[in-house]
Amino acid sequence: MPPVKSRRAEYTESTRDAVLDAAAELFVGRGYPRTSLDEVAAAARVTKGAIYHHFANKAALMTALIEREELDATRRTRAAFEDVAARDGAAAGAMAAIDEFLVQCSEPVYGALVFREAPLALGWTDWQACEEKYAVAVIEEVLGRLADDRVIAGPVGGTLVSMVFGMLGTAGQLLAATPDAEAPRVRDELHATFAAFLAGMRAPG
Asked: What secondary structure letter does DSSP report for 123?
């Protein structure tokens, strides 16, 4: 049985969640550069000191938001892969994982925060490092399964992982900038692109 949290611990956790929720709404709606911590505090109904208790600065707040979004995104992507791969094989699972990722990139919070606002907030290098922290492990797992099932030629090297990481990042930025009405068409085109890429990597024989 997990330990029972104290009332103080529950309050601290709820305060942190409230700050993250308020920051997400403001960063998406107004943009990271135009949002102040005073506005986040007001929206979360906490003091500015309460924000600094959890986050060193606005960039640290954005980093925590990205980590929260990526933990959920990688969980959903892995689940999509495993569910379909168990039934239809690794190749179908890989495409299901890609489709799940593309849908996430069209979602207002994930797409806007991760691919529109985070590069501005953290700078390109730190944003890439934050993305690699979560995405690379999933990419390696999926490519490894594809190689194990002889869908693609193995072994899987860092060059291929980096290429797929770059393709997914470009797709995410494209979808984050795509109007809602156009998103289904763009997702279909990206699906076809990734499917062609996977077909081109198929192991001989």
From this structure: -
